Amino acid sequence: MRFMKFGKALFLGALSVAIVCGVTSCIESYTVGYLYVTGTVTASTGSNGLITGYQIDHNTGQLTPINALPVASGGANPVRAVLTLGSRFIYVLNRGANAAGSADCYGTDPSTECLNANITQFAVGGNGMLTAEETFYTQGLNPFRMAVDGSGNYLMVLDHDAPDNANPSAGDACALALQNLGQGGSNVTTCGDVTIFSINQTTGRLSLVQNAQVTMNGKQLTYFPVPANPVDFVLTGSSLLTLTGGATPASFPYTGATSVWPYSYNGSNGQLTLSQNSVQPLGIKQGTAIVYTNGVVYVLDNEPVTVDFNGTSTNSQSQILPYTVGAAGALQAEPTGVIPDDPTLGNPIQLLVESKGHYLYVANQGNNTVGNNPESGLAGYYITTSPAYQLTFLPHEPFGSGSGPQCIVEDPTDQYIYEANEYDSTVTGRLLDPTSGYLDNMSRVQTYTLPGPASWCLIDGRTN
């Protein structure tokens, strides 16, 4: 009898737990991935920037700081980070600082150029912790963009200035290489470059890839030349496209791109080969970024304020230019034409197509860095299939963001969108409605404070 009473009590207890769980939605919470954010604030150990990390909760999208983070980024002013080799390694591009310690470095003058730039390799450990391992260096000056090919075998860095730019002449290796590639004629004296590394699949160690296509003075170049004043680049799979052009910058970040320079990319050996004999003009004045996603190349253009002959100022609307990639890396404009950015926003800097391919979001940094930034925000579009690549504004857009977003990412379960912000040093998260594309507020915390201005972010979908 006592056993029967005990069994009945156990049954009723289990039933009550089930009822409680039913009422309170008792669902086990777990981490679905990690969000890493690089920041330009200096670490306490010296002049290094920081890497901050968060665990992403599956049920709520809430972010919890990863133990033992932030960590020093390995150098000053980290601007890009990439994840590769099954999420085992993260590489951080530290842009460096000028002689005065400022992040606003540019050119080849020793007082203004970036000093001590590097790529720092981190091992990704248990619970998302990071351990610094080795440091590597690009061939040129002022590195600022980085990418990994789809195989994870090669890492590429875009240097704003090739090594010969320190003493420019019509006879230096960079200028001669571009002339031999059919670019610019005899008046070419400066250029940018792409430095390529092979990635050891076991250790993650980087090894320099020589330029097998161009030999100068009996030696292979150690870099791949691109036209002067590059702004951004993107790898489409078989082509490397560099967004370039405009006047020589007197500050960073670089803007004002007008054209695209294509290389063919060989994924078996990491080599770049000229695929066209000239730069392809885009008919724009202020290109800020080039993104390749879902088979489409998108160029973001921040048209500047113009002044007519009466002295009247007009703030031209930012825009998105969609292309497909044709033979030899040539861009083919979509017949649907140029897509306007949200008229209330400005300075588009990054773009995300969500995982299902239905919605596209553009992170606008804004043009006002003091106080409230009304031009910062996320423009939202529905992607139509007929006509292809046509973008239609979503209802209720633009969606709010922090001030000065630098990046925009989607979590591994396709439920949440996060962006990291420079001007107010925050991370902002939003809930993605898969049926409408609407970005809603999260149920609890939506904004997280960073230790300093954000410069880039990435998602790691592997947990352990």
The oligomerization state is single chain
- Number of H- or I-type helical stretches: 2
CATH fold-level assignment of one domain: Methylamine Dehydrogenase, Chain H
Helix content: under 10%
The CATH architecture of one domain can be named as 7 Propeller
Report the biggest beta sheet as strand number plus sense, adding barrel if it closes: 5 strands, antiparallel
What would you say about this model in short?
The protein is built from two helices and 37 strands.
Tag the structure with descriptive keywords.
mainly beta, Methylamine Dehydrogenase, Chain H, 5-stranded antiparallel β-sheet, 2 helices, 37 strands, disordered N terminus
Structural features, described:
This protein has a domain at 138-345: Methylamine Dehydrogenase, Chain H (7 Propeller). It is built from two helices and 37 strands. The chain has helices at residues 2-24, 173-180; strands at residues 31-39, 50-57, 63-65, 71-72, 78-84, 89-94, 118-124, 130-136, 141-148, 154-161, 192-199, 206-208, 211-216, 219-221, 224-226, 230-235, 239-244, 259-266, 271-274, 280-281, 287-293, 296-301, 305-307, 313-315, 319-325, 331-333, 339-340, 348-353, 359-364, 377-385, 388-393, 405-410, 416-421, 426-432, 439-440, 447-449, 454-460. The strands form nine sheets. Strands 1, 2, 3, 4 and 37 form a five-stranded antiparallel β-sheet that branches. Strand 32 (405-410) and strand 33 (416-421) form a beta hairpin. The longest helix is centred in the N-terminal third of the chain and has 23 residues, at 2-24. The relative contact order is 0.11.
